Amino acid sequence: MKTTLEYAQQLDQQDALRKYRDQFYFPQHEGKNCLYFCGNSLGLQAKTTRSYIEKELLHWEKEGVEGHFRGDMPWKDYHHFFSVQAAKIVGAKPEEIVIMNTLTANLHFLLVSFYRPTKQRFKVLMEGGAFPSDQYAIETQVKFHGYDPEEAIIEVEPRAGEETLRTEDILSKIEEHKNELALVMFGGVNYYTGQYFDLKSITKAGQKVGAVVGYDLAHAAGNVPVQLHDWNVDFAVWCTYKYLNSGPGGPGGVFVHERHGKNPDLPRFAGWWGHNEDERFLMKKGFQPMPGAAGWQLSNAQVFSMAAHKASLDIFDEVGMETLRQKSEQLTAYMVFLIEDLNQKGHQFNVITPTNPAERGCQLSILTDENGKALHEYLTKNGVVSDWREPNVIRVAPVPMYNSFEDVYHFVRLLAEV
C-alpha cells in the first residue's frame, strides 16, 4: 500500500463496486459530498428509495383498502417479498426470517419464547458494554421473571489493559456457569469497539451446556458474513437502518431456526398476522401459528418503511454479501495502514477494533484522550460525518457499498492536520 492520493484513486478505478456509490445520496459540505462514515448508525438513502415508496402511495391512492389484495405486491403478502433476499444476508432459510416491527420490540417478543428460566437455570450471559437496548431488555426480562439482575446477568469483560474480548474468555465463562445458564445473548458486532464475535464458537459452546443462544445483529447484518442456519443459532434480531439503508426507524428483522419455527407449542405472544394465513380472515378463536419465523408476527406490514427496505435489499441482492465483504476488508485495511503511518510519524491514534479482519466489520473505533470531543468537532467542521460514543471513542465506518478509497485517504489526511 501507498500513502498517496494517486494510489487511493487507483484503487477506486479498480473497484468493481464503484458504480454503486452514485446510487446513493450524500449529505453536502461546501458544495461537495461529505466524507460519510456513519453507516454504522444510519445508512445513506438509495436514489431508488423514493420511487419504491411512491409506488405504494400510488397503490393506496388507487386501491384504498383493496391494496391489501390487488397488484403485484398486495399488502397482505408483503412480508413474503423480503424472505429470500433478507435470508441471504444473514445466512438463513427464507422461512426462518421475517421482517417486522423494530429491533428491541422484536427482541422482547423473542425473549418471551427463548428466555424460559427455571429455579436452576435462570442466568443470562452477555458481553460487558453491550448496547443499552440489549442491557435494558435483558435487565427488565430478568426482573419480569422475578430475578435480581445483579445475580442473574453475567457480563464478560475484557482483560485488564485490553479493550476487546477474547473468545477463549467467553467460552470459559460459559463453561464456568454451565449449570446455571438459561440464555447466552451477545451482539454480533459490539457497537463500541467494532469487535465481531466468533458467533459459531459461542453458539456451539452455549448449546453444549444446555443454554439457548441468540444474537442482536444490529451492527452485523449487511456488514459481516453471518451463517445463522448453519451455525445452529436459536434466534436473532437486527435493525435495517444501519448497513441495510432502510431509513430512520426502518423495520426490524427476526431469525428463528427452523427447529423452533416448526414447533407450534413454543410459547409466544401472538397476534393476528402470525396466525395461519389460510384461515386468518375467518376470524376464529384459537391461535394457530404460521410455520417458521412468520409465526411470531403480530401486526400487518409497515408498508411504507418496508418499501424503503426493499429498495435497499434489491441492491444488496445484486451485489452480494461476499463481494461487499471483500471490499470492506480492503477499505478497513487501507484506513488502518494510513493511520499506522501517521503513528509512525509521531501521532497517537489508537484503533481499538481488532486488527484481525475476521474479527471486525466496516467499523473502526478510535480511542481518544481528553481532547476527543474537540477532535470529533474538528472532523465534523471539515465535512466528516462520523459519531462520538461516550466516554471516549470516535466511530468511523467505511461502508463498501458507497464509500471510496479516496474518502478514506481524505479522512486520514484530516487526522494528519490535527
Which terms would index this structure?
alpha/beta; 418 residues; Aspartate Aminotransferase, domain 1; 13 helices; seven-stranded mixed sheet; globular; Aspartate Aminotransferase, domain 2; four-stranded antiparallel sheet
Any overview of this molecule?
- There is one protein chain.
- The strands form five sheets. This protein has a seven-stranded mixed sheet, with helices on both faces.
- Helix 2 (49-63) packs across helix 10 (303-319), helix 7 packs parallel to helix 8 and helix 11 (321-344) runs parallel beside helix 13.
- Helices cover 36% and strands 14% of the residues.
- With 418 residues, the chain is an alpha/beta fold.
- The chain has two domains: 5-46 and 320-416, Alpha-Beta Complex (Aspartate Aminotransferase, domain 1), CATH 3.90.1150; 73-318, 3-Layer(aba) Sandwich (Aspartate Aminotransferase, domain 2).
- The protein is built from 13 helices and 17 strands.
